[in-house]
Amino acid sequence: MSSNLEEIKLPLILVNFKTYSEATGIKGLELARKAQEISLDTEVSIAVAPQYTDIKTIADEVEIPVFSQHIDPVAQGAYTGHITAEAVKDAGAVGTLLNHSERRLKLSEIDEALRKAKSVGLTTVVCANTPSVSAATAALNPEMVAIEPPELIGTGVAVSKAKPEVIKQTVSQVMGVNSKIAILCGAGITSGEDVSAALKLGMQGVLVASGVVKAKNQKVALLDLANPIREAAK
Question: Which residues are catalytic?
């Protein structure tokens, strides 16, 4: 089965709900609806990655892309407590995150999880903490790589501004391995200024979490992130 990357417009804003109470259950659905509204209003691609238990509810209610936060590198069968590619696909997800700093995998596990994801047509976003890990990951042929230095995650200090050299090195090394891979910027992204800086450094989108989920006004936060992408498209 082919990937869904052609269905996902770039640049992309991918909102990771993590397990925040502000994006669990009905609140998760409400946030997904807000993301869809801003996406339609700005014509900027916004995707969401809710908790597993909310994937089906959200995927049934919105038309923006829905991602899983993780899948395990296992087949369907006797794997109690694991999350399979087939399960999240059946629930309505079109893609999945892999190897987030809060859910690390070994390189061999990433490779196998990618195989499982591709077998059911899930678009993959593999997180990496350094340029060299990003390049190693790129060799496994995911659709997207997200560079996220873990020390900046949740700090409100964007990697695109605090460590632009990391972004530049990641772009250079990933493109040297596979020029077809889209690169997202994560860690500390909270404002349109952060997104603008990321785009200028060669990113094709951002991976965000608390900057949106825990914002006092989630719609305003989403609009702030989307505006630089909308302006760049003019």
Answer: 100, 148
